[in-house]
Amino acid sequence: MPLSLPMTRLLAAAGLALFTTGPAAAETATGSELRGTGDLGVVIERASGSVALVDTTRREVLRHVGGFGDLSHASVKFSRDARYAFVFGRDGGLTKLDLLTGEIAGRVIQSGNSIGGAISQDGRFVAVGNYEPGGVKVFDSETLALVADVPADYEKADGSIAQAKVVGVVDAPGNRFVFSLFEAGEIWTLDMSGDEPVLDKHRDVGQEPYDALISGNGRYYIAGLFGEDGMALLDLWHPEKGVERILPGYGRGEERLPVYKMPHLEGWAMAGDLAFFPAVGRHEVLVADSDNWSLVGRIPVQGQPIFVMSRPDERQVWVTFAHPDNGRVQVIDTQTLEVIETLEPGESILHKEFTPRGEHIWISARDSNQVVVYDTRTFEELARLPAESPSGIFFTHRAHQIGL
Length: 404
Prior knowledge:
Elements (H helix, E strand, L loop, with lengths): L39 E6 L4 E6 L4 E6 L9 E4 L5 E5 L4 E6 L5 E6 L3 E7 L5 E8 L3 E5 L5 E5 L2 E3 L5 E3 L2 E7 L3 E6 L4 E6 L6 E5 L6 E6 L5 E6 L5 E5 L7 E4 L22 E3 L2 E5 L5 E6 L4 E7 L4 E6 L5 E6 L7 E5 L4 E6 L5 E6 L5 E6 L4 E6 L5 E6 L3 E6 L9
Antiparallel strand pairs: 1-2, 1-34, 2-3, 4-5, 5-6, 6-7, 8-9, 9-10, 10-11, 12-13, 14-15, 15-16, 16-17, 18-19, 19-20, 20-21, 22-23, 23-24, 24-25, 26-27, 27-28, 28-29, 30-31, 31-32, 32-33
């Protein structure tokens, strides 16, 4: 349904603030040389509210940039030209970083608590999903002016109206955003292709969708369900068919372990016709046939998996774990479905990112204050880079991939 929303409402009164990084701001991050951004990236430094701007070719940190607020749970999207990084902070901050100069180009505090966001297919809009007060806000990617405010209202069992936490915000073809409402058990799509935003709601998709992903071709939106076994799938080519429940009861009849940390579904791995994803509260990576979404395998691993990510050539899947097994990373062969390598890069492994063609992987070891780089063919350690409590690692090739 069309939304009667203000399309241009600046957030100056709500706390729009601009920051610069001081005298060095006039220089490029790499000095005065002209360069592209295709081998740049950002590492979140959660303890200090800063990011490390990194060069993946030279395997070095170019600069540490502060002023991002609370980055205890942060994510990053990149502009269409891969020059700017949009950093989503836990304090509701949306910060635009110029990768070439190392300057913060804009910052807005848009909510009390946000969980992440997405950038539209045409690069014009940045959407942010919020925990407090809930809902989604959409901003102009150039100016960070607010263009749409979508509250996540739902009716509770007692008939009162509340706002749900919004999770799993992704971009989809057609300048759409898709996201899930945790308490409401709903999936919504927000179409930003016309003069006015258009919202479609899918109700009763399952209990407590906690995270989601979109397939690489932008067709399938899949939400994990914390309140029950199984997942919810929306076919964006045929949204009129509604949401389908897939993989029901994959843990039924078996004792679960305590859940130490909810796995991230954005890190699902697709390899050929198979999908690899973390089992909630279990020491397993699950394997499904992506043609019919039936469960076809379970791979025992050393802990509760958090991120399950495939190398770009889909030959390997790399897995990180929740506490107390979060000092290890395991590698799965996607043909044999067996673990072929176990690495111990450091203390409290939080995230990992492949270089665009997958020859290297960068892994953040939070409590070791290091980012460790490995050769993904030989598993040789190539570098250890200093970072202040590093967590998320994001490289600029994500600018040209759906859902990333």
